[in-house]
Write a structure and sequence with these properties.
By secondary structure, the protein is an alpha+beta fold. The protein has helices spanning 10-19, 27-47, 51-64, 80-91, 107-122, 127-147, 152-155, 160-176, 181-192, 211-227, 244-248, 284-296, 313-319, 329-332, 336-346, 356-359, 362-368, 377-380, 419-430, 436-447, 456-463, 469-475, and strands at 69-71, 76-78, 304-311, 371-375, 390-396, 401-406. The mean pLDDT is 95.
Length: 477
């Protein structure tokens, strides 16, 4: 198989991934990548025993049967592609996983399952190889997304992550397989032809949590097919007819240069946002400003007469519709009104805010009825880094008006969640689900990944069943 030649961006991207070494990745980026992976592992273990995750596991195992690949946190095994699908679904299971704020996708739901399955298929892979492949994934996905103008895909109704997440998974699996640049180009082509995802899944569908899993599985297949000599679309990002950017960007002037912008110099890994709340990233500005107003004014939510939330196009289209009682958990985690209500009422937006009882609580729905959401063109037309800006105005029962603006929520590039915060989040979320010795061992392996002889060591630690996150909350009520 020979490498194609092109003045475009597909070949340079494939060449960069093929040539990437751990030594070429700056130490702060390697350190951040390991902490991001720990955050992904935490999300997966929390998601493993959620009610809808159990439904997904049962259904997929019925289709795929048994195998040798681990379904994390369950004690079950299945085929490699099925494990990618299910483990990704777990990581996306409760909206607590990472996302890129400018080119929205959930990288860990694509990277972690693909690493585990590919390493098992190969009979082993070192932690250093896995970390290098992970960084390739953290870098590729956002660049492809930015070529489609990132969050604009959400405004158009695409589930952006599954659209450009296939390339993330393909490069992770391809790098771990040590594919050459020509084979990686084939994998990119096969990944692109399997891309897709409809954002209407956000209203009530369990399948919203699986859509990154479809992309991860498809990318895993793309790399495997390329490794077997099966060819894919060459120059997939450059073709004017039927190419990835020309089709998905039709009528929206895609910017192909973003695919290779700053490769090896600027690192998207450090821009990936770690969530502080169990909700889609576009709601984080609203949640943060609500919590800050609540604390600053010692606000009694029962005094709120009206809530006005002003956001830009992406957050408005992705996060607002008139909710109907009761919402499903996935709908609540996507909806600006619900997020604002529980933030003011409970002082937090974490898994306990999405139990069945809270989703149908009278005080929540009374406050949702006072919410008005407006599309603010000034936010949309402002700086790119402020596309998730939020203006919130609270009118109290005596006419007092309180206002506050968040230009970029906590966790974004200007105010990142620290590595120490990620460790604390991991221990807080996963600690109640397993014994401390196992919790400590997982943390040690992930944060020392480049020194681990075989990634199978991590897989073994993740394999055994964990307690159900919502089950534990109900017990502790």
């Amino acid at each position: 198989m020979s490498e194609s030649t092109s003045s475009g961006v597909t070949v340079p991207l494939a060449q960069w991934v093929a040539q990437l070494t751990l030594d070429a990745i700056p130490e702060p980026i390697r350190l951040r990548a390991k902490h991001l992976l720990l955050d992904g592992v935490a999300a997966g273990l929390v998601g493993a025993q959620l009610p809808w995750s159990r439904v997904a596991t049962k259904a997929v195992l019925a289709l795929e049967g048994l195998g040798d690949a681990v379904v994390i946190g369950t004690g079950a095994t299945t085929s490699d592609p099925a494990s990618v699908l299910i483990n990704s679904t777990f990581i996306q299971g409760f909206e607590i996983d990472d996302f890129h704020p400018l080119a929205p996708l959930h990288s860990n739901s694509l990277i972690v399952p693909t690493l585990l399955a590919t390493a098992r298929h190969l009979g082993g892979a070192s932690g250093a190889q896995a970390l290098t492949a992970a960084v390739a994934g953290f870098e590729v996905g956002p660049r492809v997304g930015l070529a489609l103008h990132g969050s604009q895909m959400l405004s158009r109704g695409w589930h952006s992550g599954p659209v450009f997440g296939t390339h993330t998974a393909a490069m992770v699996a391809g790098k771990l397989r040590n594919l050459n640049a020509g084979e990686l180009e084939d994998a990119l082509g096969m990944a692109g032809t399997q891309s897709g995802g409809l954002m209407a899944a956000q209203y009530e569908a369990m399948s919203k949590r699986m859509q990154h899993g479809f992309a991860a599985r498809n990318g895993y297949y793309a790399a495997g097919l390329a490794a077997g000599g099966y060819t894919g679309i060459k120059q997939v990002f450059d073709r004017p007819y039927g190419g990835f950017l020309s089709v998905f960007g039709e009528g929206h002037d895609p910017d192909p240069a973003q695919v290779i912008a700053g490769l090896g110099q600027g690192w998207h890994t450090e821009y990936i946002m770690v969530k502080s709340y169990a909700a889609q990233g576009g709601l984080h500005g609203t949640i943060q400003v609500a919590l800050e107003l609540r604390a600053e004014h010692e606000l009694d939510p029962s005094r709120i007469a009206h809530l006005e939330i002003r956001v830009g196009h992406t957050v408005y289209h992705h996060g607002w519709w008139e909710p109907e009682r009761p919402l499903t958990s996935i709908g609540a985690q996507m909806n600006l009104g619900y997020a604002a209500a529980v933030a003011f009422l409970d002082g937090r937006v974490l898994p306990p805010q999405f139990t069945e009882a809270r989703l149908d609580a009278d005080d929540v729905w009374e406050l949702i009825g006072k919410v008005e959401v407006k599309l603010d063109e000034a936010i949309q037309n402002g700086p790119l880094r402020e596309r998730f800006a939020t203006d919130l105005t609270v009118t109290l029962d005596d006419g007092t008006v309180l206002s506050k603006r968040i230009t970029q929520p906590h966790g974004g590039p200007d105010d990142p969640v620290t590595n120490d915060d990620i460790v604390a989040k991991y221990r807080s979320l996963v600690g109640p689900l397993m014994e401390t010795s196992r919790l400590d061992a997982i943390q040690q392996v992930v944060l020392g990944l480049e020194h681990v002889a075989d990634l199978g060591e991590l897989t073994e630690l993740l394999a055994a069943p964990v307690a159900g996150a919502l089950d534990e909350m109900e017990r502790n009520r």
